[in-house]
Amino acid sequence: MTAWTARDIPDQSGRTAVVTGANSGIGLAAARELARRGARVLLACRSEARGKEARSRIVSEVPDAEVEFASLDLADLQSVREFAAAFDGERLDLLINNAGVMALPYGKTADGFETQFGVNHLGHFALTGLLLPKLLATPGARVVNVSSGMHFLSNIDIGDLNSEKKYRRWVAYGRSKTANLLFTHELARRLEATGSEVVAAAAHPGFARTNLQTAGARMEGRRLAERVAGLGTQLLAQSAESGALPTLYAATAPGVRPDSFTGPRLQGWRGAPVKSVRAKWTLNDAAGERLWAASEQLTGVTYDLK
What we know:
43% helix, 10 helices
């Protein structure tokens, strides 16, 4: 069987995609390939300067790309609401919830949520809910939540979603990535129950060369740790382009199943996209329902799946 590559992405002409965190790394690579195949792509980024720079980079490689910058700060629910209200497309074919932070020192979002849980899960939960009417109205629409193999580090703690009892950065990261998968599971289940054809799927990049690995150390001024993490990433990680393939597969390949989880072939580390292994707790209906209810309460966003 031939390995799936970006060359296998079907024609995306006439389709609209929103990619969060598209200013660098996996998000930038995914946005570029979608634009190369003809999609109109919105780069949903926190930094206007970096978002516009990413747009320029894409256009330099794909001169006829239809790509736009749109301001979105997932650490601020007001920004999420403003982005959704300003979205002017008649259709939304692909929502790729890619943006994320990893292993940061303890902090809080503008709304008082622990940063990793707030950005990686709650921001995307709110964004998806607010854009849901566009997705439901678009034949063949998909939502792709980018999780991580590191979700195996920890199940969520429904009684301490904001890690207020004890904060361990890697555990908090694992919980946020488990939340991504539980959200995918529950969204897929609810969509199916209403007869919707919108596909909610998940993906993870394996170990890819992005700025996530060094961000935490850089924020704390730990220069040696930052250099070590950067060197290890350069030596061992696959490219961002390769890391984006599972996301692109989940977003565009024919026959992708709801609640599927796509990752790299070689033990979840690197390689072509294939079905990936996930923890059993990410397929728990009761946990998905509890997280969903908590997320609606925390964000104030209620899903209308009718």
